[in-house]
Amino acid sequence: MSKQIIECVPNISEGRDAEKIKIISQIVEEIDGVKLLNVDPGKATNRTVITFVGEPEAVIDAAFLLIQKSQELIDMSKHSGQHPRMGATDVCPLVPIANITMEETAKWAHKLGERVGRELGIPIYHYEEAAKEEKRVNLANCRQGEYEGLSKKLVDPNWKPDFGPAEFNKSVEKSGATAISARDFLVAYNINLNTTSTRRANAVAFDIREAGRIKREGGTLSGKIMKDDNGNPLKEPGLFKAVKGIGWYIEEYGVAQISYNLTNINISPLHEVFDKTCERALARGMRVTGSELVGLVPKKVLIDAGKHFLKKQERSTGIHESEIIKIAIKTLGLNELAHFDPQERIIEYMLESDANKPLVNMSLTDFANETASESPAPGGGSIAAYAGVMGVALGTMVANLSAHKRGWDDRWEEFSDWAEKGMAYQNTLLDLVDEDTNAFNKIMDAFRLPKDTEADKTKRHTAIQAATKYAILTPFKVMETAYSSMEVMKAMADFGNPNSVTDAGVGALCARTAVIGAFLNVKINCGDCQDKVFVADILKRGQQLVDDTCALEDEIMQITNSKINKNP
């Protein structure tokens, strides 16, 4: 199942005391499901940037603990540093990473702000995408006057905190105020050039970046600077919004780079910036030799890039994500200066644990042996889900073969779309292989709960019934997904590569097995569910799915056999 993932990047007003920084940063790891990614202290600024990621609720809990510990260990009345600040935890931005919208992220920011204001008594200002009014969108406005001006700011009705006290009490004197936001992910990205000239690297950067360059008469570097009526230099904007860039020389590598900050990858995707940089470098007599990502990135950045480059090659994008990412790495030249390991550089991969997918990470032999063992799980439910995986994998294979068939070059996008559909079904069913076993384990865990008191018995009974419903809904999801996936097999049997029509047919047979097999699990688990209305509804829907599946399988097999008979 696709998890929602957000990143949290709190900046604390301590950059010199290593012990305090360690205590504050490591407290986030007390929350299960949160991963601490980076701790970056600055002595001159007396400020530390901390980065961690996880599912929203866990991240919010971790952020609360961090803010609480910062309040305890940092005294703002004694703080000094070069960076603007107004609180022990000065800012705490939340960044959507995967399967979550900015709007949803902003709601989590508000939940965090309300909790911190209520439980810790810290004044909270929401900014950027979490701002509750226009003048608070800009962080500089929220932080105007910094800590020293906070006592006056809090009593100003126009600057009443969104949450927390509107007074400079003893607690606030120590903690200051905190600004909490939802914002886009920032990608630090460097592109390497076959030159040592910073000036020429800058010329390309000015072509690309939003700020562009100063306008000069005649459009030449030596031309007179053009000014507006107020005497301010006129700017010629660059090609991309939400992009900052500058050229520099990297002595370590002996090359010039263009260093970009992509502040909104939805507006200006990395691969588009790369393509235009290649184009503008070539026009100036240079060549892009590779590029470099600084820090971690969301998986989407490289998936979008890989699909973009595959489409430019007129190749199917309906392949496994690891292959898509490989194309992105090769095309962007991310291995030029140092080895780029996706497992260590992609945020979602850093969060994944093999322990969550013990079955699908097995070899085929180990999976078969584990199934054959005396252990009750994996059982028929997981096998049914895997039958569905193999079925739609065959349909996807036919789509990809069709996309590459000689003479069908004008149809590659059509088949690529079908392959992408197939991969989506495959990924869902793969998750369900382990999830069916997890559902069985949830029931076992519920039965192990204590039953010494009446309260224990009530809690145990509720847990058993909840786990039973989950054990019904999981194979039902297998049924729904496997049936839906048959649209791929039908399409490929109907108009895919005729040389692979039997593969589409076998895929349909596997999908049918998945549906009927999963329904057996639905039915047996329904026997232990006391919600009879729920049971009656799910059995009715399940039987309809079985009937529809058998009818569709028959249709696909008729198509398959008719084509086989034409070519005996």
Write structural notes for this entry:
This protein is 52% helix and 13% strand. The mean pLDDT is 92. The protein folds into three domains: 5-182, Formiminotransferase, N-terminal subdomain (Formiminotransferase-cyclodeaminase, Chain B, domain 1), CATH 3.30.990; 187-351, Formiminotransferase, C-terminal subdomain (Alpha-Beta Plaits); 354-566, Formiminotetrahydrofolate cyclodeaminase monomer, up-and-down helical bundle (Four Helix Bundle (Hemerythrin (Met), subunit A), Up-down Bundle), CATH 1.20.120.680. The protein has 568 residues and is of the alpha+beta class. It has helices at 18-26, 56-73, 102-120, 139-142, 150-155, 170-175, 198-208, 270-283, 299-312, 321-332, 342-345, 347-351, 364-372, 380-403, 412-447, 454-495, 501-526, 532-566, and strands spanning 5-8, 11-12, 35-42, 47-54, 89-98, 124-128, 178-182, 187-193, 213-214, 235-236, 243-250, 255-262, 288-294. Helix 2 (56-73) packs parallel to helix 3 (102-120), helix 14 runs antiparallel to helix 15 (412-447) and helix 14 packs parallel to helix 16 (454-495).
